[in-house]
Amino acid sequence: MSIINLELKKVVDDSYDIEIGRHLEDTMIQDIKSGLVGKIRRFAVITDSIVNDLYAEPICEKLRQEGYTVSSFVIPEGEKSKTREVKACIEDAMLEAGFRRDCCVINVGGGVVSDLGGFLAGTYGRGVPFLNYSTTLLSAADASVGGKTAVDTKLATNLIGLFNQPKKVYIDLATWETLDKRQLSSGMAETIKHACLGDFEMFEYLESHMEDILSGDAASCEYIAEKNCSIKYKVVMKDERESGLREILNLGHTVGRAIETVSDYRLLHGEALAIGMAAEVRLATKFGTMTQDEADRVIALYEKAGLSTAIPSYIDREELVKKLYTDKKVRDGHLRFVLQKGIGAIDEHVPGEYARPVAEEDAREIIMEMP
Ligand code: GLY
């Protein structure tokens, strides 16, 4: 018998840029020409049925004009496309189209596209590089940055996936002009969450500029895009793989994700998160980490963004309580919630622990008493 130690210590540099601007298509193509993804000349553009005509096709065309080989893979718009089955369909189509390891994936769209496409890039040919070209406020605020990629299953959202960082993220603020009111409001949910967990000044800004943001005022949109990124990347840089601190980005998501699944995706992610945040602030008030006034202020800001914080009548509240156990923060079978400490900070309930155990009765009581 012998033991051979296969030493595989790794030093990884996954650093990347997030560029925020308007009409960044040419910038991305210039980056590719300058070697952003090495010598790759073959691109798989993953997009959805709404974004394809608006932004993905023009990007494909520009790439073709530069002599690159490009195919686009278009999925139906919406969270219901974020599945293993849709991922497999794209993979088969890419294999059929001759894509091998010498390709790069470009995700053009919102969070569904970047979550699915980033996961696919991480497993295709055992891993190919990818870029995120974000076309929604929701993905600009959250999904396109930080390298969490995943698909949903029948049981819950995002349970199967990878930490896989893009080579660069492009946040095109001009694309927000084509979002409908519902999509814009949904995107505000993650933005308000960031203010709640890390920046009181940003919270006050949102209180006084909500109308400007929702009507597309350029300066306000730039402000929130930069704030969202800076709050998020500071957390991700410290704890990429969510061994502790990154759990704070999950604020409001314990109930939010559960209600999104129980609604069978009738609720958009941000709409579900707004309800999750309303549950979280009630719980925080109960545990004494927030005052009633602060909780009311958070709920009022969500309502101001055009988001309802009431649980829809079609939701079975007992089913919702059960669904809480699919949350990735569950530890040893116990629910754990991230709670705010006032507005702009998170309760570190013991040093290094940002999610606290919550008894099912306490979570149920809040869910049952919510409007
Ligand atoms: N969406 C939460 C995170 O990226 O950690």
Which helices and strands appear, and what pairs or packs with what?
Layout: E1 17-21, H1 25-33, E2 42-48, H2 51-65, E3 69-75, H3 84-96, E4 103-109, H4 111-123, E5 130-134, H5 137-143, E6 148-151, E7 160-163, E8 168-172, H6 181-198, H7 200-214, H8 218-238, H9 253-262, H10 269-287, H11 292-304, H12 317-323, E9 336-338, E10 355-357, H13 360-369
Parallel strand pairs: 1-8, 2-3, 2-4, 4-5, 5-8
Antiparallel strand pairs: 6-7, 9-10
Bound molecules: glycine (GLY).
Description of the molecule:
- With 371 residues, this protein is an alpha/beta fold.
- It folds into 2 domains: 17-178, Rossmann fold; 194-369, Dehydroquinate synthase-like, alpha domain (Up-down Bundle), CATH 1.20.1090.10.
- The protein is built from 13 helices and 10 strands.
- It has helices at residues 25-33, 51-65, 84-96, 111-123, 137-143, 181-198, 200-214, 218-238, 253-262, 269-287, 292-304, 317-323, 360-369, and strands spanning 17-21, 42-48, 69-75, 103-109, 130-134, 148-151, 160-163, 168-172, 336-338, 355-357.
- A 6-stranded parallel β-sheet has the order 1-8-5-4-2-3, with helices on both faces. It has a two-stranded antiparallel sheet with strand order 6-7.
- β4 (103-109), α4 (111-123) and β5 form a beta-alpha-beta unit.
- α4 crosses α5 (137-143), α5 (137-143) runs parallel beside α6 (181-198) and α5 (137-143) packs parallel to α8 (218-238).
- The radius of gyration is 21 Å and the shape is globular.
- The relative contact order is 0.10.
- The mean pLDDT is 97.
- Bound molecules: glycine.
- The site of glycine has 6 residues, from loops.
